[in-house]
Amino acid sequence: MATPAHVHRPKVETFDPDAMTNVDPKGFVRSVDTYSEAPWGLYMARPADHPSFSYLESWLLPDLGLRVSKFHFTPRGYREQDHYVDIVEIDRDGAIWRTTDLYLDIVVLTGRDTEVLDSDELALAIAGGVLEPGRGEYAMDRAFTAAIGIARAGHDVDRWLADGGRPVDWLGHTPAAHIRTAD
């Protein structure tokens, strides 16, 4: 089956705590300020040279199939959101972590709203043969499990994660046992 021109393949991103780098889906190598590993995942904080945001923080949470991020928006790029959650597959090979984006996203306004986005992209990827139906089912399960849990926690990602035994913190202040920070 031919892939429609407007359906992109799943985006893959690499996180290398030893090299203090993050390779984005377009292949650009980004310098990372902080990596921190906890039993439930990997934290990353790095600058961004994007017109809409100047800094990015993310937690990779393998057992949940999520990448939870905070974007530090520029005045020009400001969006009304506190957390952006990507539905991902997370693989690890030694120190290297790799995410494969599965199209669905969740935008959270703490205390106000939790919204699942991009179901149309997921459907097109499956219909276009870019994503296997089983992986699509996994993505839907992860997205709606997270969205329901976050909504029940008062639309509070941090509270939902802490209630599930995954306390997270941001801006390099993590409860993890091992912290690597760029010199």
Summarize the structure.
This protein is an alpha+beta fold and 183 residues long. Helices cover 20% and strands 40% of the residues.
Describe this structure in words.
It is built from 3 helices and 11 strands. A hairpin with a 5-residue loop joins strand 5 and strand 6 (53-61). It is globular, with a radius of gyration of 16 Å. By secondary structure, the chain is of the alpha+beta class. Strands 1, 2, 3, 4, 5, 6, 7, 8, 9, 10 and 11 form an 11-stranded antiparallel sheet that branches. The relative contact order is 0.19.
Features:
globular; eleven-stranded antiparallel β-sheet; alpha+beta; 11 strands; 40% strand; 183 residues
The sequence of SSEs as H and E is EEEEEEEEEEHHHE
Helix/sheet category:
alpha+beta
Work out the oligomeric state of the chains in this entry: single chain
**Regions with little confidence, pLDDT below 50 for 5+ residues:** 173-180
Helix content: 10-25%
Largest sheet: 11 strands, antiparallel
Total helix count?
3
Which helices and strands occur, and which strands form pairs?
Layout: E1 12-16, E2 21-23, E3 29-31, E4 34-38, E5 41-47, E6 53-61, E7 66-73, E8 83-93, E9 96-109, E10 113-117, H1 119-127, H2 133-152, H3 157-163, E11 178-181
